[in-house]
Amino acid sequence: MEEELKCPVCSRYFCNPVLLPCFHSLCMVCAVQIQELLPPFGQQSGGNCGNSNSNSTVGVLDEAGAVSVGSEQDLPDIDKLSIVSETDSGVICNSRPNSYIGSLGFGNIFSQASSGTLFSIRCPVCKKIIYLDEHGVQALPKSSILESIIEKFGCGSEEQTTEDSDLIKCQLCEQDSNDAACMCEQCEVFYCDSCRERCHPFRGPLAKHKLVSPCQGQMLLKKNKTKESKCQEHVDEQLSMFCQLCKVPVCYVCAQEGRHINHDVQALGVMCKTQKNELSQNLQSLSEKAKSGTIFIQRLKSMTDRVEISNALINRVSTADENFNREIELTARVSPKFELGFDNEHILQSIENMDFYEMKAPGQPVIIPEDCSAENNSVTIAWQPHPSGIVETFTLELDDGNSGDFRVVYVGRETMCTVDGLHFNSIYNARVKAHNNVGESNFSEMVSLQTAEGFAVPFACLNVASNQWHRFV
């Protein structure tokens, strides 16, 4: 495990490792040291397009903007192609049908190479040449997983730790720097024993500071340095803005002078808060949808019993259908000539069970003076039907308040009626009669009701038959 965590160039544990397109890793510093700047195509040798017998190489762009190059033995299905030819169309004459190579990636490489900004690096493990863009090894992806493994593995073996500690010097020695004995996490300064006793005593506010070994301090400084996001194009500038068009963080130099000069840029902190709010809303929405989905799944699971019952019903229906078809096949064929019959037996039975009785005209209804009343310019009359006979409707008549002609004010089955809109300070006479299909009864005895004098006053009711007045309040 320990050998796999060491760089093949410096033979030390990986420091800020980057991943090559051939899937081998290097330290960032080592990769910068071994990368080479290629001259323009016009100055390269061997750029003959017609030399198809030479052992040429083919480069293929990957997602990181690099080109992996191998020999023709590595790619037997691809025709020989000279990468230094500017007139190559991508299709070799007299070649196989599968000799077409897409020109999208090579066009980018050719344009970069013609401007003199093409870098190359040879992998020290597999010896393959990797072509890079103008950013060089800075464009290679960081191997964060390998870096995490190294951090969990620790500072390395005792030999490596001792060797690293010997290289770290005190930062406060004036002349010859002594070897560092510790580092303060808060001050981020390496001290030897004498400088630590003189400049960093364990008293006062410095008593709460934590001192660690030089190796651990170096690892802490590397961690703190990697936390700061730097621009790939301007390595000395921090990423402080966010390009809305390209959806990438940029520095202020990129926003003012670089490729994002005319793009819509916002402060990185503001965009982080906005994205966090959107993420929170999306998470809340997803949580609600997940809750609804869980409830729906529970409902679906609870329907399995119904599905089983439905299957049983389907089997029963199928069995009944088979039995019915079997009986139909056994039944004799019906003649095309048939007779229509009318079954009137139940009608005759109903006629025999009918009871007939003689219906007479209803008797004279009786007005109930105790339930009659008058309030303001309205009167209420109540009556009851005669005990014998069947009543279908009642007709209530009222005169004009001046002992004039009667007129019908109500026809219906109710035994009480209120008449509104009468004259104030007037005496009204009322009578009622009953009706049915046979005929009608005589009018009842009249009752007299007096309306108020424009406000609520006691009223009197006169029973004409007994010639007695009933006074109500």
TrEMBL record:
GO cellular component terms listed in the entry, alphabetical order: cytoplasm
UniProt KW keywords: Cytoplasm, Metal-binding, Zinc, Zinc-finger
Primary site of residence: cytoplasm
Superkingdom of origin: Eukaryota
GO MF terms, alphabetically ordered: zinc ion binding
Protein's UniProt keywords contain Metal-binding: yes
Locations listed in the record: Cytoplasm
UniProt domain B box-type: residue ranges: 226-268
Keyword Metal-binding: yes
Positions of the Fibronectin type-III domain: 361-454
Protein name in the entry: E3 ubiquitin-protein ligase TRIM9-like isoform X2
